[in-house]
Each structure stands twice: as C-alpha cells, then as structure tokens.
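[DERIVE STRUCTURE TOKENS]
===
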Amino acid sequence: MNIIFIDWKCFNHDDTIQTLQALGHQVTLYAHEEYNFPVSKSFVEDFTDFLFGKKVDLVFSYNFFPPVAEACHRNHLPYISVVYDSPYVYLYSYAMMYETNRVYLFDSAWVKELNQGGLSQVTYAALPTSIHRSLPSGDTIPERLRADISFVGALYNEAHNFYERMEEKASDELKGYLEGILSAQSLIYGADILKPLMTPDLLAKMHRALPLEPDSTSAEPADYRHLNDVLRRKLTSMERFRYLKTLGEHNRDNDRSIKLFTLEPDAEIPGISNMGIAEYTNEIPLVFANSRINLNITLRSITTGIPLRCMDIMSCGGFLLSNYQQDFSLDSIAPAPGFTEDHPLSTSAFLPGVDYDYFDSPASLLEKTEYYLSHEKERQEIAQNGKQKVETYYSLTAFLQRILPS
C-alpha cells in the first residue's frame, strides 16, 4: 500500500516508518505547521494539492488531528490514527464523526464512552511498542542509569499549575470538598468517581475560581478541562509524590538505589535520587533494562488503559510493578498459535505475578518491592515473560498487521 505518514515528533516515529516499509508498504512523509490545529483551511488545501496525481491508499498518524481528518474526508481517503496521549481533547472534535476515520484508543473506558456517543469507528487497542532485542549491558551502562527501583515520569508539580491557580480564588468550602473527593478517588483504581461527582453546581464553582472554556470548534464536554487539567492532574501529582515518599522513607533504613527520572530538576524526595531527564530513545530503554523494579504510577486521566510506559518497560525486558489498571486483564487479540490453554502466551492479557505485578496501596507497594528485590530469580522470570508477551502480541509489526487493511 501507499501510505502517507503525518510527520511530527511522535513516539515510535522512526521505528513505525521502518516497520511499515519492512512490511512492504511505501511510506511518504507529510509535514505541515498547522497539522495539530483544531481547524485549518490552509492544511486542507495544501494537503489536497499534495495528493494531486498520487495514488494513496491511506493516511496514518499517531494521535488524531482534525485538519487531517477533514482533508481525508474531502478526498475520500481512509485515515488511521493511533492515540497515545491522555487527556486528548481532539477526540471531541466534530471531525471525529467522518466515516473515513479509523481511530484506535488504548483506554477501554474511553472507547466505550465514545462508542455510546455514536462513534462506532473508534476501536480499543493496547499501544504497540518497539522491541528492544539487543540492549547493551554490563559495565558499559552508566551508573546513572542503573537502579534497584526507578520511576520515569512527570510529577506535575510545576509552579502555578491549574489546581493551585484555582485554589487561590476558591472558597474554603470548595477546597475542602475537592480535597475530600480527591482523597476518595486515590483509594480506587479501575473505577472513576470524579466524573459522576462533577455536577453542574460543582463545575460552576470551579469555573468561577478558574474559568476554562470548552473548545468552541468541538463537542468537548463542559467539564472536560476542569476534570482532566485540574483534578486528575492534581491527583496524579499527589499520588506520585505519596508513593515515592513512601519508598524514600522506607529507604532510610535500607541501602536501596531508588532513582527518579523527571522533567522537574528541583523536586526533592528524601531517600530518592532525582536524576533529571532521561532521553527517550537512547537512555530510557537502558533505565528500564537496568532497574530491578520499574514503577508505573498512571496518569489519572487514563481510567482503565495500559500506559505506553508499561509497554516500553516490558519491551526492554524490565520488571514492571504498576498500580492496578483494568485493561491489563483484557484479552483482545486472537491466541498465539501453538500454545495450550494453560500456557501464559495463550492469552494476550497480562497476568499478575506472571508477566508483571501490581500494587494497590502504599503498604502493598512496600511489600512487593521488598519481595521482588529479595526474590531475584522470580523477578527475572516475570520480566522475561512480560517481554515475551509484548513481543508476541504488542510489537509494532504485529500491531500494524492487525490494523492495516489487507
């Protein structure tokens, strides 16, 4: 097939292009400065001119872009988009309604919501990942990239963020109520209690303290920005600090190497070393492969889905210890051939204690980190099982073969 690839700085950019070419497809890159605008007449016109005289079978992008959908609709071209960001407001664009769209989302709860809203062209698919088969090891790995326990991710504690800006003008009553519902949600993974509690009255109070207007070019829910940019982002920050502080405090009596790789260079957590930024392509795979335990603490706008971080950890042969996420248990892909029902690879679902493991409280996190740090053989076996499952079901090659028309 002849595929146009929307060219921007997305994850898996080079690997996806190379995989498409290895599968026998011709790939043409197309870049435009307004590809990610909510509406762009310039993009639609320029893209239509670009298509003139070309035989094109489909357009592909990571994340969904309304101008691309509009241009594909006008030119009767299938548009396949694989969304890995969350929250992602463009999924409420009116351009999502076009029958030329094929949108793949990694959060089954989100898929269900959009399907119920009439968008039948939205399909669940766990995110694919590049497979790292020959990472360097041994003395060649810088000590900075080695750890007993590591976490790679943002802390969302930047100065004057949305929640703190809202707090400045919020009443004590509103602040107390929000603190209460955030604390309650922090005890629960796999079910969302924040959205049902976002009543018109609560939204009005939050809007008065921090006006955030919905996008007028889309069907974005009125509560979307306050729910995701304010509450869920704040909750994620609270939880990441809480879990990391729990480990750091415990580490005062131990000699564990616990490292944080984050955008926030000034973040200080006693007992944990802040290593700053790890570069995605060349450093993060080495962190994942050379950490005895890799933590995942999911961004709370991802209700049930498996974050890309988890897939990347397992693809590197790293041991994954995650908070509970419902979609780990989804068996959404046909069984791999040649395996009996009792073999772990007979299911695409990730099995706790077999392919990865999860925690559901600070106490559980401490218990499981101590267990796996003292059960090396079991930890290594689980890491290898996770890598094998990702290679079997979730590689870029397997993923693209499933979603591309034959």
The first helix runs from residue 13 to 22. The mean pLDDT is 94. The first strand starts at residue 2 and ends at 6. The domain at 138-157+239-393 is CATH 3.40.50.2000 (Rossmann fold).
